[in-house]
Design goal:
By secondary structure, the chain is an alpha/beta fold. It folds into two domains: 168 residues, D-Maltodextrin-Binding Protein, domain 2 (3-Layer(aba) Sandwich); 137 residues, Bacterial extracellular solute-binding protein, family 7 (D-Maltodextrin-Binding Protein, domain 2, 3-Layer(aba) Sandwich), CATH 3.40.190. 46% of the residues lie in helices and 14% in strands. The strands form two sheets. The protein has a six-stranded mixed beta sheet with strand order 7-6-8-5-9-11, sandwiched between helices. Helix 2 runs antiparallel to helix 11 and helix 4 runs antiparallel to helix 13. It is globular. The termini are far apart.
């Protein structure tokens, strides 16, 4: 009898604990919602923020809020995510600014070379979010039924290449480089030929010799697109700038969400950013020791970099402001330059 009573007692305790576990998991109650997220390529460090959002939304709502990530451009090609958002084809997407500069001219500010970014992950994320909150950026996204939701906080770019290594900056003259936005403009100042190539196509082009060097956020993206499989050298401290590929929410879909779901989404940003931070660091820890042994590592002197920055950085900033009179371009740039 005692054993039977013990079995019944334990069973009841497990049953009750499971009920409470379910209650704890379902912290946010609401209707069933299914969101589609458009991404290109495969899962990688760059996508860990989206993966975290997907996982945590399901956990916090007991599976009622589902955010399904569609990789490989299943929903839209990398250059067409703005159009997909506008057409209500999906509820969220990652949008890279230099894939379509005319559609997001304000967001192009974050491609300008030698901005005061790249020193601290958390500060950089705060700067980018401050840019998104500028009225010009909000209006820009709204034209495509979008809301700049969260940054992917891309690391500074570096080059990986094949062939003669650019030991001096002048060696970039005549090189065909994959570099978008302001970083590409900076390289043109050095005499390089800028090529705007979607990330998934870079491996084939550099392997065939159609491109000499590829700039990507260091190090994860070079590895994600297998540039390290065909490269022979890399720059370790050029850091000419970066780009911006924010997570953009479909404005109409976001506004239709119940308030508790909107609040939940916003509250998960720190966790998503934390996942990105950890993923980028993990990639550095994994690949850098190998690359230092395998490839020619190129480092430029402080004097060389200072000269590059002074001669190229501010003039490109000024040109960008002058070329964008349709919105408060100076105000957008000042958000970055004056951020404290």
């Amino acid at each position: 009898m005692l054993n039977i009573k013990k079995i019944i007692t334990v069973s009841l305790m497990l049953f009750i604990s499971n009920i409470f576990a379910t209650i704890v998991v379902a912290k946010v109650d609401g209707p069933s919602v299914f969101w589609k997220y458009s991404l290109w390529g495969k899962r990688r460090a760059f996508t860990e923020g989206a993966e975290t959002l997907s996982k945590r939304l399901a956990e916090e709502t007991d599976g009622k809020f589902k955010l399904k990530i569609f990789y490989g451009g299943q929903l839209a090609k990398s250059r067409e995510n703005w159009d997909g958002l506008k057409a209500n084809s999906f509820e969220m997407a990652t949008v890279c600014n230099f894939y379509h500069p005319k559609k997001n001219p304000g967001l192009m500010v974050l491609t300008l070379p030698f901005l005061p970014l790249g020193g601290d992950f958390d500060r950089d994320a705060a700067v980018r979010h401050a840019v998104y909150n500028h009225p010009a950026l909000k209006a820009e996204a709204a034209k495509f039924n979008g809301i700049y939701f969260m940054t992917s906080n891309l690391p500074q770019y570096e080059f990986m290449g094949k062939g003669k290594p650019p030991l001096k900056l002048s060696d970039f003259k005549g090189m065909r480089v994959r570099a978008g936005g302001g970083v590409g403009t900076a390289m043109v100042k050095l005499g390089a030929t800028k090529m705007s190539v979607p990330a998934p196509e870079t491996y084939t082009l550099i392997a065939r010799g159609a491109v000499d060097a590829v700039s990507f956020p260091f190090t994860y993206a070079h590895a994600a697109y297998k540039i390290n499989e065909v490269a022979e050298w890399y720059t370790a401290n050029l850091s000419p700038g970066t780009s911006d590929c924010p997570y953009v929410a479909n404005k109409q879909a976001y506004n239709k969400l119940p308030k508790q779901y909107q609040k939940l989404l916003d509250s998960l940003k720190p966790e998503a950013l934390g996942a990105l931070k950890a993923a980028y660091k993990k990639a550095d820890d994994k690949y850098l020791p190998i690359w230092k042994k395998k490839f020619k590592e190129i480092r430029y002197s402080k004097e060389t970099l200072a000269e590059f920055k002074n001669n190229v950085g501010k003039p490109i900033w000024d040109d960008w402001v002058a070329a964008n009179k349709d919105f408060d371009s100076k105000g957008v740039l000042d958000v970055i330059l004056n951020f404290k």
